[in-house]
Amino acid sequence: RRTRREFIRQTAQLSAAALAAGGAALRAAAETDRSRVFRIDGCPAHDGAMRHVGVDALLGLLAENGVKLYRTPQPHPWGGSSGIIEADDVVLVKVNCQWKCRGTTNTDVVRGLVHRILEHPDGFAGEVVIVENGQGRGGFDGMAGGGSYDSWPAIANTVHVNAEDETVLTVDHLVRAVFAGQPVSSYLLDPIRGAFISASEHIRDGYRTVSPPAGSSPATPVSYPCFTTPGGHRIELREGRWTGSGHAGNVKLINVPVLKHHDGSGVTGVLKHVYGLVSMSDGCSPVRHYSQIGSQCGKFWSLARTPDLNILDCIWVSHASLTGYPAETTRRCNVLLAGLDPVALDYHASKHVLLPLGETYAGQHDPDRFSGLVGMLTGAQDFINGSGGLAGVPARQGDENIEVLSRSAVPFRFPRRVLRRVG
Partner of 174 at 20 to 30 A CA spacing, among 3, 93, 159, 407? Predict the structure, then answer.
């Protein structure tokens, strides 16, 4: 049993290790007394190319403000000595695939991100692994969501994803066809969610738990996955990559949720997306839904792992459904957000992307007034900051505490002026 002082010291040590491993976003956040939200507006409808115009604009905006995708000595506009991803990293891309239709992460966005990771200027020699735990309802084949779509027979038993090509671009298709022959894989955590392993187990796939310091309230633990990737890398999410004799730090986590409505918490965004990394089979599902939702989310960020980058998909936003269907419950917004602070990102997204869409659930999308959303943001903020912040940088909410750096995905072009000849 650790004292609170020991716990905070150990948490700070883990955070420092994550910072040294490439948390460029943490360094950028520390340069200001406000949390930064990076915003790209006007993402055009994707044209089917490997690159994604919105993703590229976002990576450019991040890089110009000190958050570079590549850690490299090579000259590159998105690279530098403090970049996030090294050439031999195992990069976990966490997506939402518990549902289908617009209730999932946009796979055009995922394709664009993975494509750029593979283009590391030093030559990518690691592995990109797309991961999700749908708690028994997840899937990478575009058929997820269990019986939640039975009311709509036309789509209940068919493939539907969140992409321009709604019936083809599944995660399975990305891995097996789009990125065939490249170090890109997927790992669905649903089948191992009920297997719990010890700290000395490095072969079986399953979940470990970590408890907060003695005397903490709430005292419930948080769980995290340990598994061997299709590429043969043993990932123990809190500790890193198991080498056979110890843990290496070359594991990076990029969190890519989709923004949408959710009863109870008001929204599903950056914070709650880690519910697809924990196992609800650890016995803590009741308090996560929703009496302790904020602190439970905060625990993962503080005790298990802080994502190296969050990209919040707001291309299509489901403002009136969790499932992303029917069509009238979704709205095309063409926005991408990014940053480190999950509280700031969810505050800005709910207030300035989701809330303005109005309609049935608008009252639940106000981060200043709806008790469920206020509770999630405040509970997470309190737990994160009470544990030392994110590598010493506090989580923040409120417009006055958030700096929004924004631009359009496509530079505004003035129409060419034609001078008329006179006489």
Answer: 407
Cis peptide bond prior to 149, omega within 30° of 0: no
Distance CA 390, CA 83 (A): 18
Contact 322, 377 (CB under 8 A): no
Contact 34, 401 (CB under 8 A): yes
Q: Count how many Cα atoms sit within 13 Å of the Cα of residue 126 in the half-sphere of its side chain.
A: 24
Pair 225, 191: CB distance under 8 Å: no
Would you call 292 exposed, middle or buried from its count of C-beta atoms within 10 A (0-12, 13-18, 19+)?
A: buried
Measure the CA–CA gap between 126 and 130, rounded to whole angstroms: 13
Asked if residue 331 lies in contact with residue 317, where contact means CB atoms within 8 angstroms, the answer is: yes
Distance CA 114, CA 107 (A): 10
185 vs 128: CA distance, rounded Å: 6
pLDDT tens string 5-33: 554 455 444 444 444 444 555 555 555 69
Tracing tokens 């040294």 back to the chain, one arrives at: 20
DSSP codes, 211-274: PPPTT-SS---EEEEEEE-TTS-EEETTTEEE-SSSEES-EEEEEE-EEEEETTTEEESTTGGG
